Amino acid sequence: MKIALVTGANKGIGFETAKKLAELGHYVYLGCRNLDLGQKAVNELHKNGLKNTEVIEIDLTKSKTIKKAKNTIESKFGLLDILVNNAGILGTVPQPAVSTNVEEIRTIFNTNFFGTIEVTQELLPLLQKSEAGRIVNVTSDLASLTLHNDPTWKYYPFKSAGYSVSKTALNSYTIMLAFGLKETNIKVNAVNPGHTATDFNNHRGDKNPEETAGVIVKYATTGNDGPTGKFLNSDGEMPW
Asked: 3-237 domain in CATH 1.10.150.120?
């Protein structure tokens, strides 16, 4: 049995990712800002027989919750095998580069970028105790600089100075982290689940969470011959 943590897991892609990991037999922590909502999600999983799940409070903007979550996992299991950095915010849209308030951009970065880094660094000592640690940074089509410069791309008009840029930064950090861990058993990838219909985007996506969570789980459980330091989706590598 492997030990996994999925942040932002009380609904949407995060919930489905946690569910699929639990169905594989792993013990899964559902990281949530709101413990009540997290517990409701866990109760639903328990009703479906997935007793190998537990809620844990973690708010990417509050260091004390990150440290407490690390201590909780360490005291119970001593290690962590899988970290899925799924939690993130979209911010107020639209986000034109010429006028979006810098405080709005900073708020988005505090969660999507800095918060994700803090969670990763705090939990890294536990991942280093795993025989095959895996880190998935959940990213987006909108993180690709190459695609953003292609006028034929279907999402070309969707330019967001906060959300998209934060995910591009996260992709870059993924490369740096993978390089820093290249001599270890830990694999790190930026995984784009695709345009998914969730509360996050007012259900405007063309895929469902059950479908796209499978892409995340695939790379969260990749074998020792799997990729690391890559930007991936269901079709394989994406352009940076």
From this structure: no
